[in-house]
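The following block was generated as part of the benchmark described in Methods. Ligand: ribulose-5-phosphate.
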Amino acid sequence: MKATPSPQQLKHEKQLAAEAALRWVRSGMLLGLGSGSTAALFISQLGAAVRAGQYQIQAVATSLASEALAREAGIPLVEPRRGMRLDLTVDGADELNTELQLVKGGGGALLREKVLATAADYLLILADSTKLVPQLGRFPLPLEVVPFALPWILDAVAELEGKPVVRMSRQQPTEPARTDQGNLLVDCHFQSIPDATSLARHLQQIPGLVEHGLFLGLARAALVAQGEQVLVYTP
Ligand code: 5RP
């Protein structure tokens, strides 16, 4: 049986994947910056390269937290505008399979993450070795939902056999977590998702469900670190 990597090993793997992602960056690019601990490592390395004059780039961030990190790191940020296409979005994932179907949103930023994944010509995913799975679903699938619609969304998810749990705030554990848009998050415990395309189709039909964390047909490549190696997966 494969030993579970220690937190230090996982951080090292995330760092290796983040370093490797710099090879996808070119001067003049407009980048999408992901959210979460792996994306944060990428932002910090990209910032160092920008400050060293290695790249002249601009970026849009997938969360207020990543926006703050990018600003601190010296990465020039721009506002979304009509007709904007990103050359490259670099983001993490909670789970991925070898077809590069993803579960995202563990950090609650799935809506802006999907916007920037879709607006990009190339979505590059960074992952440590624990994220690559034979089947999606062990990680609870996050949904961003409009607060008014919550009771009906919980019913609809229960009907799809994904035990729904409203995510609570880490800072104020008696309050529900809020997204950057002020919406709620529901984590759906499916345990296994044998047909992600069909599940995504069902979820898309639920009114008040703003976005779900299944990212299908979006990633162009994934850098998965395993020990000292970084493996490149393409769909
Ligand atoms: C945030 C996300 C993150 O990309 C995902 O949760 C992975 O995070 P980490 O790199 O910390 O493991 O989807 O909404």
